[in-house]
Amino acid sequence: MTNRLFKALMTSAVLGLGATTAISAAECIAPANPGGGWDFTCRQIGKIMYDIKAVDTPVQVTNMPGAGGGLAYNHVVSERADDGDLIVAASSATTTRLAQNAYAGMTADQVRFVGAIGADPGVIVVAADSPFKSLGDLVDAIKAEPGSVAFAGGSAVGGFDHMKPLMILQKAGFTDITKVKYIGVDGGADAITQTVGGFTQAMTGDMSEVVSFLSNGDIRVIAVLTDERVPGFDDIPTAKEQGYDVVAVNWRGLYVPKGISDEKFDEWAGKLQQVADSPEWAQAMKDNGLAPFTKVGGDFQSYVDGLVSDIAAMSKELGVTQ
């Protein structure tokens, strides 16, 4: 046997061995630069999946910023539509932008939403000395005289903070949402300042934005927009228990390409549920100010479908979209 032939045979054998033993590694795309919510979702969930042995190899994180998540969304739909080893970080911002056609014609049904396992709860806040003692008081005032109540929020007009009180009002039978005053400012702290200062009558935002103001006694949270009361804030009633069936949270979750098999989708849902049930995730939520919010698989997909439909309709009525 010549030396050249021997080398060729050995190369072939090594390549063959590699092909049979290689394990495909999962990848998580964070549609933003390092830091922030989407990056946190990929890195924390990916790390815990590996730590609890839900996956055999570490999850690779790829940062893909651009167009508020639109670049990554287009990449998944156009180039990775059947990649069963790919997961993508998502949040309420993802579904809001899809509902408002912010991803250049892309729609929510072009991927499959696997689940959410933690959230920053939405809240409705008034100043400590506000005459509104409950969510019902606030809703009744708006129904009686829509222009008498203005909300401040950290998102632009048509953003998710704007949508939260509108969803509540719709559940209360109030449909003329264009009459509801909303002022978009630069972040939750500014929105609270507007409310405490009396420039607006209420603030709409997330729990993480209001905790310090709550502890200082500057505000009262009259409703948290979760299924159940938030641990550590057990005295704050949910909107649901006050008669308004609205859950509006800045959830942390994942979507996957639409073209993967049902078996692969169920597999990812199972892995995400394992993370949700782990003490490691409970600690990560505590460390990062998240509340429990677990909707996985078909239950979550139904939630997303309803949310996208509601926001799309309200956005059109507000003139945010055509």
UniProtKB/TrEMBL annotation:
Keywords: Signal
Gene3D superfamilies the UniProt entry points to: Bordetella uptake gene, domain 1 (3.40.190.150), Periplasmic binding protein-like II (3.40.190.10)
Signal peptide coordinates: 1-25
Alphabetical list of Pfam families matching this protein: TctC
InterPro entries noted in UniProt: BUG, Bug_dom1
UniProt record similarity statement: Belongs to the UPF0065 (bug) family.
Name listed for the protein in its UniProt record: Putative tricarboxylic transport membrane protein
Organism per entry: Litoreibacter ascidiaceicola
